[in-house]
Amino acid sequence: MSDHLSEVVSELKRSCTSLKSGQFVPTLRLFSGRILDKDNENTTGFVENHIEKAVRYFVNEYHCKVFNLSFGDTNKPYLGGHLRGLSLILDTLARELEVLLLVSAGNHRIGEDSPDGLAWRENYPHYLLDEAWRIIEPAPALNVLTVGSLARHDQTWNSQRYPLDPSEIPIAQPDQPSPFTRSGHSVDGAIKPELVAHGGNWALSTRAGHALMDRVAGLGVVSTNHRFADGHPFTVDAGTSMAAPQVAHLAASILREHPDASANLLRALLCAHAVVPEASQDLIDQNKDFRKVCGYGRVDETALRRSLDVTSFEIRGTLSHDQAWVPDGAHGRS
User: Fold this and answer.
1) Which CATH number fits domain 3-308: 2.50.20, 1.20.120, 3.40.50, 3.30.1950?
2) Global pTM value
3) Which one of 26, 80, 167, 274 is most buried, counting C-beta atoms within 10 A?
């Protein structure tokens, strides 16, 4: 199992109650469909064909209804126009098979279009709206839920160890968009990403000429490690790939309680209970274009679970236009 796959699986199985109790009680059944090799490369044909084949297989053989795809093609940013390629295939699968697909928004690939040195901090968060930060295939797909990333921590390992040492500077503050997350929209201004979840942060080292600390700062998401047999059970990584499976976990949790819920209902429940964190809302208040980064916000898990506990009822029959039905015990309430 590759390190990326191990980390994504860890987020899919994550449970805060398990961490607090010290016991792990599985509540979800997880299947892993591998489409890339151990180096996260594809050398055996079109990846679109592999993904379509995998989705159809798990639907037919195991009746899976929620799929997480922490995958993106940085060579294919969405710059407008019609959807094509993997986005089109996922939209078709979602409609035909009535499944919910969750896709990561994609991470900015450090290169010529990246800020330099201190500019990472000084130009944040405005560069998130640049063309170089547009969502990548297959994030623009309209029938999937696309998930971007929020920062959770603002102290590196060294900052926690030496709190009076200011040499390592975080780029984002907690609950602000991660400095690597990508922005929408999709076709005809459709909101993408729809949701965000904690996926990590980056920092700058003033001792190294404001060099970027992307994977060595300890500002990412704690997950299981594929090197557990060597005595390294946990690792830390950052990316929208870590954010998407957290939302997939919530979707699967809804299905566990309501197994007949449709994919559209799952999407509606997740988005209806999303709230933009205050730190990100402050950015939107200054520039509404940051809605392209934050979408509807982060799912409020407490509110979501509370809504699932509400009892509903159905009334069958007819009712004339001048009649109203009031349940027993409701008289006199305002």
Assistant:
1) 3.40.50
2) 0.84
3) 274
